[in-house]
Amino acid sequence: MERTMRTPIIAGNWKLNKTVSEAIALTTALKASVVDVNGVEIIVAPPFTALAAVSDVITDSNIRLSAQDVYSEDSGAFTGEVSAPMLKDVGCDYVIIGHSERRQYFGETNESVNQKVKAALAHGLKPIICVGELLEEREAGRTEAVIEDHVTGGIASLAAAELLSCVIAYEPVWAIGTGKTATPDQAQEVHNFIRGLLAKLSSAEVASQIRIQYGGSVKPENASELMAQPDVDGALVGGASLEAESFAQIVKFDS
Ligand code: PEP
Q: Which of 77, 33, 59 is CA-nearest to residue 244?
């Protein structure tokens, strides 16, 4: 399937940034900047505390809401956690799962990622499943082995129809927040590997429809060359999503 058959998907991961009032201001400015954009799915992922306020601002707009994490259980004695039904109720369509910062600092594993993916799907949330190698893994020639492990573990035992609701975000850990971007060739090589893997794990048909985002120091200056790669279907943007103008420029990568 041609890249043109997959709607580009640009998501902003705000991480641990923005109070409610700051989130409203950022979203209001972004909404005005992207009002004329068609044919690109635009997503913002504020912290949990700002989801409700941002959801109100983007009502009837072309911006969709994502959370940055979800717990695998729906309810119960799990202090501090937030569940898929709660995220759906507040207006989320997407949820980021398995971000490298969660794997690195909060003990996220392929098993917990897979449980969270299943919980999200069970409640109609689309998971953005993050995978990516550390610098030492790349330097040791282990990139494909790590990606295979993350993808296989993250999507374990999903049905084809469920897989079609997932987005994979390839985020080389050495490129996140470092200002070092993977070259378009490096990104394409891994995206192509992921698509081949998805074809093996599911089918060529499913693999051709799943969107694969690149993440790691995406900026207005490098977005269009990354997006020009045949298997790069979108971007997961951290730092450059914290200002409306830079994120809007990335959203408009092809104009
Ligand atoms: C991210 O948070 O997923 C990310 C890629 O961050 P940055 O764009 O700042 O590298």
A: 33
Ligand 1 centroid from CA 195, angstroms: 22
User: What is the position in ligand 1's atom list of the atom closest to the CA of 237?
Assistant: 8
Is the model's pTM score more than 0.90?
yes
Q: Name beta bridge partners: 215.
A: 236
- Helix or strand holding residue 247 (H, E): helix 244-251
- Site to probe by mutation for ligand 1, drawn from 94, 236, 243, 246 as the one with most ligand atoms within 8 Å of Cβ, is 236
Scanning the structure block, which residue is given the tokens 């900026």? 219
Q: How far is the CA of 81 from the centre of ligand 1 (A)?
A: 23
Pocket of ligand 1 (CB under 6 A): 13, 15, 171, 176-177, 215-218, 236-240
138-171 in b/e form (b: 16+ CB < 10 A) is beeeebbebbbebbebbbeebeeebbebbbbbbb
Query: What distances in angstroms separate CA 236 from CA 20, 49, 200, one per listed residue?
Result: 22, 21, 25
> At how many degrees (to 10) do helices 110-122 and 143-154 cross?
40
Rounded Cα–Cα distance for residues 37 and 34 (Å): 5
Query: Which atom of ligand 1 has the smallest separation from the CA of 175?
Result: 10
Which atom belonging to ligand 1 lies closest to the Cα atom of 218?
8
150 in catalytic set: no
Distance (Å, rounded) from C-alpha 202 to C-alpha 193? 14
pLDDT tens digit sequence for 50-100: 999 999 999 999 999 999 999 999 999 999 999 999 999 999 999 999 999
The CA distance from 37 to 106, in Å, is: 36
